[in-house]
């Protein structure tokens, strides 16, 4: 992996959790590429025209993503904000998002992760040494650190300087972008606070933030959200939450089964098909043809599944046609391929049988409805 690719990958990992960052990360890649040397360009296998085309495509994708986000968070119907409230809110958010706070939060949340990532991508990691030597990673792992360093030095005597240079490039890049984000974040947050709180409330909040305790609270409130204690507590809360869904699965499934089943084209009578055709602006015969095809495909699927299961059973019985019948009938003596094939066909046959029964019951219900003298059918 080239130096620039490693840099950008580490940067992307750091930036991923932030929505705005997620849209800017691809741009960072193209900027980095433009600054790369001809050697890096050869490593990437891209010409200047390739890069220009990639940037154009990427910009189009970012514009589409941004349009979707703007649609999801549409603010066009919000009322205007009173200037006095906005001014007070700007003071509030200046305290909540002081200069450098985003970088502190990201460093606390992902600093260890980025360092670990860079260590794993370093030239003396088990992964990279395995790639370079062709040996399995578990064999490399048995080597002590001194030996790994000597092996890495044989491939790259300047690896330490190279790795230090990588960090010296990526750290300022991340700091710069996070600093660029703080202004827009403060602006958006100010407008949100101005809509949420009254002039009196904002003034009271600002008076608190002007005190030593308030200033300390405001300055670190965002950073504390990424505190290891908080992150660990949240992560530990996930398994019990998942288990609750698993434990209540049968009850939830039953509640869904209690609802009427969704109708398909085959469940619609001629009158309903005529109404549907009018809504869709198509000929009613087209829908009738589709309904007939649907019915035909269902019957064929039922027959095919049943035939397949029967054939698999017969094949298994043929194998057992000697004195060791019971032994060969024992599925543990079958090959994984044969057993899997039989079981899948049995499942398909069972599903097909259920579908056939439900279709039969629906046909009976439709016949009863028609026998009732409904003039519309």
Helix content: over 70%
**β-strand number:** 0
User: What is the strand content?
Assistant: under 5%
Total helices: the number is 19
Spatial extent as radius of gyration: 33 Å
Shape: extended
Q: Give the CA-CA distance, first to last residue.
A: 70 Å
User: How would you characterize the largest beta sheet?
Assistant: none
Tally of separate domains? 3
The structure class reads mainly alpha
Q: Mean of the pLDDT scores?
A: 75
> How would you name the oligomeric state of the polypeptide chains in this document?
single chain
Short description:
The protein is mainly alpha-helical and 377 residues long. The protein has helices at residues 3-15, 19-35, 38-44, 48-72, 83-96, 101-120, 126-133, 137-141, 145-155, 159-196, 199-209, 212-224, 228-236, 238-247, 249-257, 270-280, 284-319, 325-329, 336-371.
Question: Could you explain how this protein is built, in words?
Answer:
The protein contains 19 helices and no strands. It is mainly α and 377 residues long. It has three domains: 3-229, no CATH class; 230-259; 265-371. It is extended. The chain starts with a helix and ends in a 6-residue tail after the last helix.
Helices and strands, with pairings:
Blueprint: H1 3-15, H2 19-35, H3 38-44, H4 48-72, H5 83-96, H6 101-120, H7 126-133, H8 137-141, H9 145-155, H10 159-196, H11 199-209, H12 212-224, H13 228-236, H14 238-247, H15 249-257, H16 270-280, H17 284-319, H18 325-329, H19 336-371
Helix pairs in contact: 1-2, 1-6, 1-10, 2-4, 5-10, 5-11, 6-12, 16-17, 17-19
């Amino acid at each position: 992996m080239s130096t620039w690719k490693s840099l950008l990958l580490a940067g992307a990992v750091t930036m991923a959790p932030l929505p705005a960052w997620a849209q800017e990360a691809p741009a960072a890649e193209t900027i980095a590429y433009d600054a790369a040397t001809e050697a890096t360009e050869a490593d990437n296998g891209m010409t200047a025209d390739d890069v220009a085309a990639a940037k154009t495509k990427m910009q189009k994708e970012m514009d589409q993503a941004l349009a979707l986000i703007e649609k999801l968070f549409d603010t066009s119907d919000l009322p205007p904000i009173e200037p006095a409230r906005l001014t007070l809110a700007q003071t509030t958010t200046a305290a909540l998002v002081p200069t450098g706070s985003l970088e502190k939060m990201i460093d606390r949340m992902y600093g260890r992760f980025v360092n670990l990532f860079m260590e794993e991508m370093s030239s003396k990691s088990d992964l990279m040494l395995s790639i370079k030597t062709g040996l399995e990673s578990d064999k490399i792992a048995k080597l002590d650190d001194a030996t790994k360093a000597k092996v890495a030095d044989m491939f790259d005597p300047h690896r330490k300087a190279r790795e230090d240079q990588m960090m010296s490039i990526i750290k300022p890049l991340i700091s710069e972008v996070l600093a660029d984000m703080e202004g827009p974040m403060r602006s958006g947050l100010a407008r949100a606070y101005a809509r949420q709180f009254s002039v009196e409330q904002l003034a009271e909040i600002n008076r608190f933030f002007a005190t030593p305790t308030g200033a300390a609270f405001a300055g670190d409130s965002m950073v504390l959200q990424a505190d290891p204690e908080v992150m660990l507590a949240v992560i530990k809360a996930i398994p019990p939450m998942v288990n609750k869904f698993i434990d209540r699965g049968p009850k939830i499934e039953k509640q869904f089964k209690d609802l009427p089943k969704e109708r398909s084209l085959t469940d619609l009578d001629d009158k309903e098909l005529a109404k549907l055709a009018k809504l869709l602006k198509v000929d009613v015969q087209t829908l009738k043809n589709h309904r007939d095809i649907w019915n035909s495909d269902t019957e064929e699927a039922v027959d095919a599944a049943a035939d397949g299961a029967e054939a698999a059973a017969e094949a298994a019985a043929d194998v057992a046609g000697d004195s060791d019948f019971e032994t060969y009938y024992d599925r543990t003596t079958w090959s994984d391929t044969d057993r899997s094939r039989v079981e899948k066909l049995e499942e398909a046959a069972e599903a097909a049988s259920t579908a056939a029964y439900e279709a039969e019951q629906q046909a009976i219900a439709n016949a009863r409805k028609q026998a009732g003298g409904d003039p519309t059918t």
